[in-house]
């Protein structure tokens, strides 16, 4: 009997370890042999811990499971109260286009043979037979853009590094996924780490870089454990090392742990941190692609960007490019979170409207109250009201509505949310996390908190001041922390003016 | 119990040896020292500075920049509660207030008996099962007041 119990952090946070222990204990008690696989999560977090059992018809899902319900599972599979049917037939799974996340939740994350049996390393083998220019052209052709949020075309970044002349070049994976509402990087690293390793190896071969780093945030202990083990396995198997898969081309990598600074998700701060310095932002130019880690040409890409590279090489740029809308090509792993009924990861082609995502896929709020706002793109993303629910999910489409898709995290709030409080938090967060390099961010965020407090006390004269301050931060900050904090603040003020009107607040209280 | 500076110099020296030749080794070194001691002892800074050819101020500057590194030991258990938006949407602020009242401490403080240190964290990536906590490095999802009380009872 083959049983899958996720080792994903969200599943563990909801009791997966206890369920796994119960499976083994019950199997021992019954004297049956159970092959227990600790897989990644399928992304249906409201069903975690989601246990799967392999049957002749396919994998059958049970969830959310508790340790107490495990004995019944081994006694009578068909009539278990938590039986959900075939995993792949569940509506959440059937409606997705899983390209980047195809293997997450399916395979044993640390089994390289499992990985290869599901299409792993096909892309890398193909890339090894291509020259640098062809590899870069394939990525450019796919239309892949930075999934960290900036949306910069990945192929152009690679081209810059590939054409730069230097004795050493680097691939740096930005796994400092600090945005609230995002967990795609974490899920991928915990559920299919070899995909990221393969993507980084292709990037290295394509640009002439021989060394890679994954800058992984310390808040993800499970991901650090899996990635570290996976790199070791890949090295032993010859996927990494002096001769990648026997090609004679070298590429190796290291996992580095962050230290709790949100700003290190910004690429130049990340590079400083990786060099052992304070994580302050660097002015651009010079671009990291020309002078990055240790002043050498460096590709800095997000986890999802790099983890999408293998499927592009496995199935071809044209296949990938075929999905999506406008200039947003391919698929995007949506992370639906916060006060939502069905929260989790849903990978789909760009183009669904915000309303479809929140109401149809997410099922509205967990509290059952009306949806008031959805913050898209993390703490620096705008709050969208229901009136903007017709916005299609794409880089330009969200930009046109004074928002951003960021790392594709969506945090749903019900009508009990106080948007003035959310605006204050955005400024407070910026003040806590500012690296201090530029004045608009360092001082502006502190003044922002004070100004929101004045508005809260009934000083409506401070509203134009807040608007003015946001303009200064937006155009005067060195990086997205100070530059984008105005998005949540201004969207809260613009779309929810009632929450900033003291008279109405008092009347309501 | 406090370690003598010679003991610290020896142990930090071993950690520095293990990181010899590593590119950009200061963060891994600080993590290793904090792993060994539970914090970064002040006496470790000049030892690191000398080996890496940095000033003591530079090492202090790096260490103090990052939220993770402690100048002083934490309590026996560290309870981190997520303060970010997804957790706020599910009542995280209310749960955090409950934790502060229950423990009688504010953020970054340790209970008088030295048992629990309470710290804010901004996102544990458990945003679809919020509010989230990290208890001595172990993740916990859907933390409400009752679950929080159970966590506190569990470590006490």
Specify the biggest β-sheet of chain B: 4 strands, mixed
Spatially, the strands of the biggest sheet of chain A line up as 2-1-3-4-5
The number of E-state strands of chain B comes to: 4
Q: What spatial form of chain A do the alpha-carbon principal axes imply?
A: globular
Shape of chain B: elongated
The proportion of residues in beta strands of chain A is 5-15%
- Averaging pLDDT over every residue of chain B, what do you get? 95
Largest sheet of chain A: 5 strands, mixed
Class by helix and strand content of chain A? alpha/beta
The pair of chains with the biggest contact is: A-B, 63 and 42 residues
Strand content of chain B: 5-15%
Termini Cα gap of chain B: 22 Å
Domain NADH-ubiquinone oxidoreductase 51kDa subunit iron-sulphur binding (chain A): 420-465
Pfam family, one (chain A): Complex1_51K
Cofactor (chain A): FMN
Protein name (chain A): NADH-quinone oxidoreductase subunit NuoF
Description:
Chain A is of the alpha/beta class and 509 residues long. Chain A has helices spanning 9-13, 16-30, 70-75, 91-94, 112-117, 122-128, 132-142, 154-163, 184-191, 193-207, 221-236, 267-274, 303-315, 317-321, 354-361, 395-399, 419-433, 439-456, 462-476, 480-484, 486-495, 502-508, and strands spanning 2-4, 35-37, 51-55, 58-62, 83-86, 170-175, 211-216, 252-257, 298-302, 324-325, 328-329, 331-338, 344-349, 371-376, 383-385, 409-414. Chain A contains 22 helices and 16 strands. The longest helix of chain A is centred in the last third of the chain and has 18 residues, at 439-456. Chain B has 156 residues and is α+β, with helices and mostly antiparallel strands. Chain B is elongated, with a radius of gyration of 18 Å. In chain B, β3 and β4 form a beta hairpin. Chains A and B meet through α1, α9, β12, β16 and α17 of A and α2, α4, α5 and β4 of B. Chain A: Its cofactor is FMN. Chain A: Pfam families: Complex1_51K (PF01512), NADH_4Fe-4S (PF10589).
């Amino acid at each position: 009997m083959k049983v899958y119990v996720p080792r994903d952090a969200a599943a563990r946070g909801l009791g997966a370890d206890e369920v796994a222990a119960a499976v083994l204990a019950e199997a021992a008690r019954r004297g049956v042999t159970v092959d227990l696989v600790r897989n990644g999560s399928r992304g249906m977090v409201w069903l975690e811990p989601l246990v799967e059992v392999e049957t002749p018809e396919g994998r059958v899902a049970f969830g959310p499971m508790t340790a107490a319900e495990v004995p019944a599972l081994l006694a009578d599979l068909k009539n278990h109260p938590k039986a959900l049917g075939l995993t792949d037939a569940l509506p959440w799974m059937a409606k997705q286009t899983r390209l980047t996340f195809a293997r997450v939740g399916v395979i044993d994350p640390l089994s390289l043979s499992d990985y290869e049996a599901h299409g792993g390393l096909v892309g890398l083998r193909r890339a090894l037979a291509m020259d640098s220019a062809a590899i870069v052209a394939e990525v450019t052709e796919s239309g892949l853009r930075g999934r960290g949020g900036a949306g910069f075309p990945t192929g152009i970044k690679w081209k810059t590094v590939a054409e730069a002349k230097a004795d050493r070049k680097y691939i740096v994976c930005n796994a400092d996924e600090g945005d609230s509402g995002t967990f795609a990087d974490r899920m991928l690293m915990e559920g299919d780490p070899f995909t990221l390793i393969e993507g980084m190896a292709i990037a290295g071969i394509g640009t002439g870089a021989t060394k890679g780093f994954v800058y992984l945030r310390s808040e993800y202990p499970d991901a650090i454990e899996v990635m570290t083990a996976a790199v070791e396995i890949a090295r032993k198997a010859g996927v990494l090392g002096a001769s990648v898969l026997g090609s004679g081309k070298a590429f190796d990598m290291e996992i580095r742990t962050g230290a709790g600074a949100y700003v290190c998700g910004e690429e130049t701060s990340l590079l400083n941190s990786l060099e052992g310095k304070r994580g302050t932002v660097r002015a651009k130019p010079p671009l990291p692609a020309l002078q990055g880690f240790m002043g050498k040409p460096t590709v800095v890409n997000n986890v999802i960007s790099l983890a999408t590279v293998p499927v592009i090489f496995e199935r071809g740029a044209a296949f990938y490019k075929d999905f999506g809308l406008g200039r947003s090509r391919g698929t995007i792993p949506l992370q639906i979170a916060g006060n939502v009924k069905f929260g989790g990861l849903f990978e789909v082609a760009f183009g669904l409207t915000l309303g479809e995502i929140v109401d149809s896929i997410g099922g509205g709020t967990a509290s059952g109250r009306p949806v008031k706002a959805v913050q898209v793109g993390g703490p620096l993303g705008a709050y969208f009201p229901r009136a903007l629910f017709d916005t299609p999910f794409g880089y330009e489409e969200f930009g046109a509505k004074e928002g951003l898709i960021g790392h594709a995290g969506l945090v749903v709030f019900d009508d009990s949310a106080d948007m003035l409080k959310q605006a204050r938090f955005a400024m407070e967060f910026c003040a806590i996390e500012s690296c201090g390099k530029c004045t608009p961010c360092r001082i502006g965020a502190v003044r922002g908190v004070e100004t929101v407090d004045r508005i809260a006390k009934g000083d409506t004269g401070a509203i134009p001041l807040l608007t003015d301050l946001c303009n200064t931060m937006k155009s005067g900050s060195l990086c997205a922390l100070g530059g984008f904090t105005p998005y949540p603040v201004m969207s809260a003020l613009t779309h929810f003016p009632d929450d900033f009107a003291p008279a109405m607040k008092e009347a309501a209280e | 119990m406090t370690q003598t500076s010679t003991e610290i110099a020896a142990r930090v020296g071993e950690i520095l040896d293990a990181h010899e030749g590593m590119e950009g080794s200061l963060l891994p070194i600080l993590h290793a020292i904090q792993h060994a001691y539970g914090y970064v002892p002040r006496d470790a800074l000049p030892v690191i500075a000398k080996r890496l050819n940095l000033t003591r101020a530079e090492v202090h500057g790096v260490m103090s920049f990052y939220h993770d590194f402690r100048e002083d030991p934490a309590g026996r258990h560290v309870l981190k509660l997520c303060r970010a938006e997804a957790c706020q949407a599910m009542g995280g602020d209310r749960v955090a207030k409950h934790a502060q009242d229950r423990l009688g401490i504010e953020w970054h403080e340790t209970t008088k008996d030295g048992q629990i240190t309470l710290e804010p964290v901004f996102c544990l990536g458990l945003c679809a099962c919020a509010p989230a906590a990290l208890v001595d490095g172990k993740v916990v999802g859907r933390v409400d007041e009752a679950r929080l009380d159970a966590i506190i009872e569990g470590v006490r």
